[in-house]
Structure formats: structure tokens, C-alpha cells
Write a structure and sequence with these properties.
- This protein has one domain: 3-Layer(aba) Sandwich (Undecaprenyl pyrophosphate synthetase).
- A six-stranded parallel β-sheet has the order 3-4-2-1-5-6, sandwiched between helices.
- The chain is of the alpha/beta class and about 230 residues long.
- The chain is about 45% helix and about 15% strand.
- It binds 3-methylbut-3-enyl trihydrogen diphosphate (2 copies) and magnesium ion (MG).
- One 3-methylbut-3-enyl trihydrogen diphosphate binds next to β2.
Length: about 230
């Protein structure tokens, strides 16, 4: 079993377009997949699940779509809080949440606090997240500590760098799933996916449910991870 699964939940717009529905209808349906996949990962014993819900660049979408997405996420958090506690799920946010609407940020803070001591599964929601921004922020914090004399560059390790990322206390993803067939990483977890196994499916996110997750895990289980070594 992968210890950590990360998912680029893509294709809500296309799901809606195929049905001649507004894009928001796709996002609403996508929330059902979020619920299903969180529950299924918990059932399967996955210890870390990271969901790309909103990229830094998604802020350049039309204002109504951004507002609707934030509203849906806020509702999701409010509705799921008790469910997360009951299922020992601890929520974290990856990304600069200071730029989210107040209600969304507040809901995140509340659920994070309410689930802080849960140890069954870590659920990381990437919101206003960008891999480059995350790396740049870490680099700046290193520069500040260097300037103040509190770190030495010679001894700075990869682990030290990792400890300055949103994922500081969690392992790198073993499996990265992207729905809807795009062959790109769209600024997701750039540092953390160095040796992650990639799985891309044409299934659109609103159609991605238990069976599709199990297929992705089965594909992962058939891979040979080499990490640059020779594996006979
Ligand atoms: C993913 O679906 C959801 C977010 C990026 C927030 P999209 O909205 O990107 O769907 P497509 O790519 O237009 O189909
Ligand atoms: C990536 O999907 C972001 C999320 C799934 C939240 P996008 O739809 O924004 O990515 P691009 O624009 O196709 O690269
Ligand atoms: Mg997309």
C-alpha cells in the first residue's frame, strides 16, 4: 500500500461541459468524489492523502468560479468536520491560506484545530497552493536564517530544506494520481514528487470513485521503484 497518495483532481469543467451544465455543477459533483475518496483512503489504511483543490494560478479564473469554489470548500469543511473526527482524520492545509476568503480560512482553521489530535490519517488540502511559491518561501526563510547567523550553509541538508515546506512532518507521496488525462504536474508538490510514481487516467474527477482509486493503487503495486539504483 502507498503510505502517501496525492491527487490532482482535474476535469470538473469538462464533466459539466459534456452535460451542457455550468462549470460549477462539475465542481459540486467533484465534492462527492472528494468525500468518497477520503472515506475509501481511510478504509484502505492510507496514512497521508493530499488533494489539490485550488492552485495559486486558479485565482486567475473568473471571479464567480473562484467564489463558487471557495463557497463549496467552506461548506465541505463545515459539513465534514464531525465525520473527520469520527474517522480519526487530521486536516492540514498546504498553501498560502492568508489570501483565501475569511469564511474559508476560518473553516480551515476550525477544522484543523478540531482534528489536531487525530492519528488515523492525515488529510492535506492544497489551497492557493503552488510548488514554486512553496520552494521560494523556503529559500527565503533559509536566507533570513543565514543572514542572522543561525544556520550554516555547508551543513544545510535536503531534510533541512524539506522541514521548511508545508509537508514538513509528512513523507513524500508514493503515488501521484491525475484525473482527466493531462500530462503535466501544474505546479503541484514540485519538491516532494522527485521519486513519486505517476498515474494518469482519462477518468474525469467527478467520475473518480472507489473502483478508480483501487485501479490506481493496483497500478502502483505493479511498479518497481528504483530510486536511481540498479534493481535486478
Ligand atoms: C479541477 O477541475 C478543479 C479545479 C482546478 C479547481 P477543472 O475546473 O480544472 O476542470 P477542467 O480542467 O476545466 O475540465
Ligand atoms: C490543477 O488543475 C489544479 C487543481 C486540480 C486544483 P488545473 O486545471 O488548474 O491545471 P491546468 O491549468 O490544466 O494545468
Ligand atoms: Mg483543469
Amino acid at each position: 500500500m502507498p503510505l502517501h497518495i496525492a491527487i490532482i483532481m482535474d476535469g470538473n469543467g469538462r464533466w459539466a461541459k459534456r452535460r451542457k451544465l455550468p462549470r460549477i455543477a462539475g465542481h459540486t459533483k467533484g465534492i462527492e468524489s472528494v468525500r468518497t475518496i477520503v472515506t475509501e483512503c481511510r478504509r484502505l489504511g492510507i496514512k497521508h492523502l493530499t488533494l489539490y483543490a485550488f492552485s495559486h494560478e486558479n485565482f486567475s479564473r473568473p471571479e464567480e468560479e473562484v467564489a463558487a469554489l471557495m463557497e463549496l470548500l467552506t461548506q465541505y469543511l463545515r459539513i465534514e468536520e464531525q465525520e473527520m473526527i469520527d474517522n480519526q482524520i487530521r486536516l492540514s492545509a498546504f498553501g498560502d491560506i492568508s489570501l483565501l476568503p475569511d469564511e474559508t480560512r476560518q473553516a480551515l482553521e476550525d477544522v484543523k484545530k478540531a482534528t489536531m489530535s487525530q492519528e488515523g490519517m492525515r488529510l492535506n488540502l492544497a489551497l492557493n497552493y503552488g510548488g514554486r511559491q512553496e520552494i521560494l518561501t523556503a529559500a527565503k526563510s533559509i536566507a533570513i536564517d543565514y543572514a542572522s547567523g543561525s544556520i550554516q550553509l555547508e551543513s544545510l541538508s535536503e531534510a533541512d530544506f524539506s522541514s521548511r515546506l508545508y509537508s514538513y512532518d509528512q513523507p513524500d507521496p508514493d503515488l501521484l494520481i491525475r484525473t482527466s488525462g493531462e500530462l503535466r504536474v501544474s505546479n503541484f508538490l514540485l519538491w516532494q514528487i522527485a521519486y513519486t510514481e505517476l498515474y494518469i487516467t482519462d477518468v474525469l474527477w467527478p467520475d473518480f470513485r472507489e473502483k478508480e482509486l483501487q485501479d490506481a493503487i493496483a497500478a502502483y503495486q505493479s511498479r518497481t521503484r528504483k530510486f536511481g539504483r540498479v534493481v535486478e
